[in-house]
Specification:
heterotrimer; A mainly alpha; B alpha/beta; C mainly alpha; B: alpha/beta; Rossmann fold; 2 domains; 6-stranded mixed sheet; 4-stranded antiparallel sheet; 11 helices; 10 strands; about 40% helix; C: mainly alpha; ABC transporter involved in vitamin B12 uptake, BtuC; two-stranded antiparallel ribbon; two-stranded antiparallel sheet; globular; binds adenosine-5'-triphosphate; binds magnesium ion
Chain lengths: ~425, ~260, ~300
């Protein structure tokens, strides 16, 4: 009995190895490289054998312990323990995290690089929170979210460079513009079934990008828009030597000039924007429209039978999500002072979706953790960019297989009849 | 008693299949009208036409108000519940399983609450007028939960309730839209005798206290015969009999339809 | 007029390629009701396998027709392994999971495949010398000479042959019957003693093989590939599948042809820059106004 099992799993592992050989053999083992005028093959059998060996071994171990089942249960046990902890401590966690975020720029080890990474993470957190309304709450898989990010960035850039208005006027305008775009795109497509919707939004994302590349008169094509005004501290620019009749930030506050001022300001700006997004989402989730979003995600037909208008309800989710995407885009534009279509590719949409999905759809904390994990940690390994994307994709598959509701999926009712019992 | 619903020459075809064939019947206010028939007779399809999920191939459906009548054909899906106030349940329960029992009942009051929340604006500002309206909605939910005895589970996920309770919850959720006509698709399916008896009580309560007309699809004859005022029998999409419960019990056509004809 | 005919020829060639990919989408959709987002990347892998084999056989000096045949078989074999593995790893465990799960998993798989090939083969574009050159010329006396290259003829004929074999497989064999049964009702099919898992696996294998043929054609036709070609080609083929009526096999081929024609004519007459916008717009318009496509079954949601 025992022996038969082992032989069986041994055979099985060898079969896995064979498949692995077929998979990795040509693609990994025979690397094409151009030399001179043609393509040549550089064999890389070492890597292939390593990979195949790993597959055989992995499969054998899995069979041996029939780890699969125990693994799934232990994995879900672990994650639910994790969710339970964060659920209990949610408030503490949130307060600690916010406090940490507030003092972060003044911590002794924080340097320019850390600040840049932190700003980037916060941008993704904001995008994740924005998309969470659409994907997590309303259950609409939007694969073209980057389009709204782009619309926000470009409208901010265009308004700011043409009219020279200040950041605080351009930001809401850009957000509104993105929301308007969301309605425009959403209206015809939100009737579609979930999977079609995903593809259509992806299509819209690509169309917008192609238009940005080709509509030279307005967008300046692939070269993008340069010279986007930097934000000022309520009218005080961050400049070493201000123009005549102008006071700059460091002069006003009697500080030594430092480029870090602007960075720190940007950091707080995105922090505030992100927190507003979060606050808004938490609030609106408890309103009728928020409940209707979640109800639609659960069962659209039942919603219709109760008189909930699915199209309008989805449209609000889409528009609000788009608006926050637009805000984030404005911030991106003002931070970079330069934007081009290159920043708004499909892969950005995919990353934001990954953040929402991995965090646990609908979970605000999940988005934070997923952003820190996906953007922050992998940022440290910038050189391994493509490996990082493999890990992203792989993680998405694994999460769907083992924990489809996301790592931190613990929904709390939006309203309680009996109050908090715990 | 006055007519609430009249269905006239309703026909529904799916490609070559005629699921409902020239069906006409009336349902009265404050009565329970049962639609019975063997599997595949077209009962659920009648509901789907009434509640706007299918567009009938032919025929008319009218809901009578005091002095006017509205044609249900004019409304599609969500407007049937919103405007015409026709509510329904489903043969396979359709709750919002990951939402709490209370939330399920609040979604049913979505439209009033939307107005009360100023389309979210007042709600975001946390105005008192909205909070009061929300409290009223919760009270209404509590009222219904008290009736079906589920108040203690109000904060649990609807999907975690036992089957029988889910059925009852779905019915009171439909009641939360304050319907004029309530369509129930096999509410007793999967219930044990005790739960069936409770269901009978609930339906009678709705009929008498809430002044709501009920259209009931049911296979469980103890339920049908116990509470129906009027019975419509369908077979292969055609109406083969119509009458009171007692008349139906003794009708030759009905027995033949259910048991087959001896050659 | 001559220009029109030239565009027509080019469009049909391109349409054959899209059609072959579209079949994979439509078959998988028919049988398990999901959009296999990674299918475009399977096509891309097929193109890479074909490219690698062309290079290897190019060194041996075997006659061209034999090379073509060998490469065809090799590409089909290895790419089928990818299709099979993707299904086993990323989709099979998700049957019965929530609505968006397979789609997200497929998206993840697509990202994995793309970046995996980028790591393994490098990010640069891979050019290949044309293998099949020359062609027939028509309207020699007019201003615009219409060329039908031998390659185009090869592509179209190969497509027709494959479609023939494939139609036979689906309509006349047990496998095809099992497949159609699974489309109707998977549980019932399983109860009747048909191995549903195997049928689904075979569906993926067939879909991937056809995509790999499309990949080989793509290498030959454009002479240059990179790890990113699967994205656009995948979307266009998906559009083709929807346009023809998703779930319908002749529909996929018809849709492929139409998309190929639309794209070439758009590029030829309207605007080259916006040629991809044409495909996306068709996709959106079709899904909104015409979701059952030309040959699809009407889809009334059962309540
Ligand atoms: N959307 C649809 N598309 C095609 N055929 C349908 C559709 N909906 C219902 N039908 C067919 O119409 C007929 C009547 O179905 P219906 O569901 O109304 O029966 P029923 O009386 O409710 O049966 P049961 O007692 O089993 O619930 C059946 O043959 C069914 O297959
Ligand atoms: Mg029924």
């Amino acid at each position: 009995m025992e022996k038969k099992d082992i032989i069986q799993s041994f055979k099985d592992s060898l079969f896995t190895g064979l498949i692995a050989l077929a998979l990795f053999g040509p693609i990994v083992g025979l690397r094409t490289a151009s030399k001179g005028e043609g393509l040549f093959i550089t064999p890389q059998w070492g890597v292939v054998f390593l990979l195949v060996g790993l597959c055989i071994l992995g499969r054998f171990l899995i069979n041996l312990n029939s780890v699969r089942k125990t693994e799934i249960t232990s994995f879900s046990k672990f994650t639910s323990k994790f969710s339970a902890i964060t659920e209990d401590k949610a408030k503490h966690f949130a307060i600690t995290a916010i406090l940490f975020a507030v003092v972060f720029p003044f911590l002794p080890f924080t340097d320019r690089y850390f600040m840049d990474v932190a700003i980037m993470i916060l941008t993704y957190i904001m995008l994740g929170w924005g998309l969470n309304i659409v994907v997590g709450l309303a259950g609409l898989l939007d694969l073209g979210y980057v389009a709204f990010y782009a619309v926000g960035a470009y409208s901010y850039a265009l308004i700011a460079t043409t009219f020279g208005w200040s950041f605080w006027i351009c930001l809401p305008l850009a957000g509104l513009f993105a929301a308007f775009f969301g309605i425009l795109l959403g209206f015809p497509v939100l009737r579609l079934r979930g999977d079609y919707l995903a593809i259509v939004t992806l299509g819209f994302g690509e169309i917008i990008r192609i238009i940005l590349i080709n509509w030279y008169e307005v967008t300046n094509g692939p070269d993008g828009i340069t010279g986007i005004p930097r934000p000022s501290f309520f009218g005080l620019p961050f400049k070493r030597s201000p123009d005549e009749g102008e006071t700059s930030f460091h002069l006003f506050f009697n500080l030594e000039y430092s480029t870090m001022h602007r960075i720190i300001f940007l950091y707080y700006l995105i922090l505030v924007l992100a927190l507003i997004t979060n606050y808004f989402t938490l609030k609106i989730r408890k309103l009728p429209v928020g409940r209707a979003w979640e109800a639609l995600r659960e069962d659209e037909i039942a919603c219709k039978s109760l008189g909930v208008n699915p199209t309008n309800t989805k449209l609000t989710a889409f528009a609000i999500g788009a608006m926050f995407g637009g805000f984030a885009g404005s911030f991106f534009a003002t931070r970079q002072a330069f934007i081009s279509p290159e920043s708004f590719t499909f892969i950005e949409s995919a990353i934001i979706v990954a953040i929402v999905v991995l965090g646990g759809m609908g979970s605000q904390t999940g988005v934070v953790l997923a952003s820190i994990f996906l953007i922050g940690i992998t940022e440290m390994f910038r050189d391994l960019e493509q490996y990082r994307m493999i890990a992203f994709g792989g993680a998405m598959v694994l999460i769907m297989v083992f924990k489809p509701k996301g790592i931190l999926a613990n929904r709390k009712p939006t309203i309680l009849m009996h109050g908090d019992k715990k | 008693m006055s007519n609430l619903l009249s269905v006239e020459n309703l026909t529904m075809k799916f490609g070559g299949l005629t699921a409902i064939d020239d069906l006409s019947f009336d349902a009265k206010n404050n009565q329970i009208t049962s639609i019975i028939g063997p599997n595949g007779a077209g009962k659920t399809t009648v509901f789907n036409c009434l509640t706007g999920f299918y567009k009938p191939t032919n025929g008319q459906m009218f809901l009578h108000k005091e002095n006017s009548k509205i044609s249900l054909r004019k409304y599609t899906d969500f407007k049937i519940a919103y405007v015409a106030k026709v509510a329904r349940t489903f043969q396979n329960i359709r709750l919002f399983p990951a939402m709490s029992v209370l939330e399920n009942l609040l979604v049913a009051q979505h439209n009033e609450l939307m107005v009360a929340s100023g389309y979210s604006l007042f709600g975001l500002l946390n105005l008192k007028s909205y909070r009061d309206k929300e409290q009223l909605a919760v009270d209404k939910a509590k009222y219904w939960l008290d009736i079906i005895g589920l108040t203690h589970r109000a904060d649990d996920n609807a999907g975690d309730l036992p089957y029988g309770d889910q059925r009852k919850l779905e019915i009171v959720r439909a009641m939360c839209i304050e319907p004029r006509l309530l369509c129930l698709d096999e509410p007793a399916a999967g219930l044990n005798p005790k739960e069936s008896a409770e269901l009978n009580k609930l339906l009678k309560f709705i009929k008498t206290e809430k002044q709501t007309g009920i259209l009931l699809i049911e296979h469980d004859m103890s339920v049908v015969m116990g509470i129906s005022d009027h019975v419509v029998v369908l077979n292969y999409g055609k109406k083969i009999f119509e009458g009171t419960a007692d008349q139906t019990k003794n009708s030759k056509e009905v027995i033949e339809a259910y048991l087959g004809v001896d050659e | 007029m001559e220009y029109f005919i030239q565009q027509l020829v080019n469009g049909i060639t391109l349409g054959s390629i899209y059609g072959l990919i579209a079949i994979g989408y439509t078959m998988v959709y028919g049988i398990i009701g999901m959009i296999n987002f990674a299918h475009g990347d399977i096509f891309m892998i097929g193109a890479f396998v074909a490219l690698i084999s062309f290079i290897i056989f190019g060194l041996t000096g075997v006659a061209l027709p034999i090379i073509l045949l060998l490469v065809l078989l090799i590409a089909m074999l290895f790419t089928a392994c990818y299709g099979w593995t993707v299904e086993k790893l990323a989709y099979k465990p998700l049957r019965g999971s929530f609505r968006l799960a397979p789609l997200i998993s497929a998206l993840g798989m697509s990202i994995v495949l793309q970046n995996y090939v980028q790591v393994a083969q490098g990010a640069r574009v891979k050019p290949m010398q044309p293998l099949i050159s020359g062609g027939l010329e028509f309207f020699k006396n007019s201003e615009f000479i219409v060329t039908v290259s031998y390659l185009q003829i090869f592509i179209v004929i190969l497509t027709i042959i494959l479609m023939g074999i494939f139609t036979y497989l689906i309509t006349k064999t047990d496998l095809g019957r099992a497949q159609r049964a699974c489309e109707q009702d998977r549980t019932m099919t399983a109860l009747l003693g048909i191995n549903v898992d195997r049928t689904i696996s075979i569906t993926f294998i067939i879909g991937s093989s056809l995509a790999s043929v499309a990949g080989m054609m793509f290498v030959l036709y454009y002479g240059v590939i990179d790890f990113y070609i699967g994205f656009l080609a995948g979307i266009k083929a998906f559009t083709a599948a929807v346009l023809g009526g998703i779930g319908s096999l002749p529909g996929a081929m018809l849709g492929g042809l139409l998309i190929g024609l639309i794209e070439t004519f758009w590029a030829g007459y309207v605007s080259l820059e916006y040629k991809d916008v044409a495909a996306f717009s068709v996709l959106i318009v079709v899904l909104i106004f015409f979701p059952t496509g030309f040959l699809g079954k009407p889809d009334i949601e059962k309540v």
